[in-house]
Design brief:
About 30% of the residues lie in helices and about 25% in strands. By secondary structure, it is an alpha+beta fold. It has three domains: about 1-110, no CATH class; about 130-185, no CATH class; about 195-455, 4-Layer Sandwich (Purple Acid Phosphatase, chain A, domain 2). The protein has an eight-stranded mixed beta sheet with strand order 11-12-13-14-16-15-18-17, with helices on one face. It has a six-stranded mixed beta sheet with strand order 10-9-8-19-20-21, with no helix packed on it. Strands 1-2-5 form a three-stranded antiparallel beta sheet, with helices on one face. The chain is elongated. Mean pLDDT is about 85; it is low at about 290-295. GO terms for molecular function: hydrolase activity. This is Calcineurin-like phosphoesterase domain-containing protein. It holds the Pfam family Metallophos.
Length: about 450
Amino acid sequence: NWVQFYESQPFIKLNPVGKQNQLFITISIICSVLLFALTVIMQILVFYNSNPLIIASVFSIAGISCILSVVHIILFMKQVAARMQLFLFTIVCCLSIALLVVFGVLGPVERYTFNFQMQPMFMPYEDKMQVLFVTEKPELTKALVGFTTVCGSESVKVANCSHKSIVHQLLVDGPFIMNKQRFDVKLPRRPRKFMLISDVHGNQAYSTALPSDFDVALMPGDFSQWGHLEGFVNSFKTPLNKPVLLAYGNHDTRKPEVIESLIQRNANYYQEIGDVGVITVKVLNNGDGIDFGCKILDELVAEALEFMRQQVKQSQAKHIIIQLHCNVYAVTGYSKTKMYQSFTTKFTETLDDINDPRIRAVLYGHEHSASCFIRKNVVYGLAAPGGGPPKHDSWFQELHGPQDPDVVFGGEFHMDSYQYDYHMGQLELDDEKQLTKFRIIRIKDNKTLSSYEVPFN
């Protein structure tokens, strides 16, 4: 019965042996094999790239073509109907055409190359990732996200597929291909390790000591000395390949139009990364210094403190970190002046008034030294410079333990201070032990100078 059913099917009907039929079948098989070979050659020799979607598409089609070609050969050897072989040959042709379409659409994006002046850096932007990169000469701003070409421009809010520039901004929500490279920097759902890197001033000294297992870099300002693009680029010559949140430093704002075009966030902004909320505020006036007699600075401080109040109130985050480019507590330099002490008083009074137990740390730069103060179970961490000139106050090199408040403002909260070297900090949120952990790291030998564990409020 099975044999009768098999022989009755029109596509499987046996052919009489004939030279013309054999010739047709032979040509059909040769064409199938050649199409399969073309598929493989196109991938390996012509269109090889790093896009996993293209690779998966190509090898899926190639695999199907291979199977069909084998079936074709078996049918020929069994002298099965030419109509069936023609059907298989047509399928192989269609698959090969589909392959050509895949490369025709995605190939040009893959082949578009240029020279980076600064490799992509990744800044969380609401629920997406802001990708900033700088090229040696004006280029198009576009990347391949899946099968979709995403365009950008000099503005993170403008997509223009034909505009060329040196500074490039893209918004993406997943892995992407650009300049024949694949980038996949994700927003962590539960970030717990944060690096504090400040006051780089165009000298990327910090890169030699960066660990590989941190989640987010917090960088509160002064990426360049004079506010030029070159200084900023030099601060990121070696890519971090991690999410980064930047704050405006007073040196950066010597040319505010440059730093604003790079960061593209308000002076005060809130960013939630997973279950951690980061509040970034600006209180220093543009340029070199700070002057509480200047009306605009009073407005900046008032705006920043009110912004903190509102964001803490609205935030649904489990942990909150505040970063800024201004001394809160410190030992050296400006921290001795009444204007900085006045700001610290206003700042800490605002935190007392907010009285939110989720606030774990206040991290800052500006002073080129390293200090840790702990007040009401909140870590006040200064870890600088990351590349700028270290502080050399003559009266100490290291300072440990509580200090006389008449000598060091807030000295009763003082833990340790260091100068003369490059420094950075590491903040860790330990949910299991309910601890905020902070370390001061000396960059030249990657040595932990001091470490602290503070219970959550």
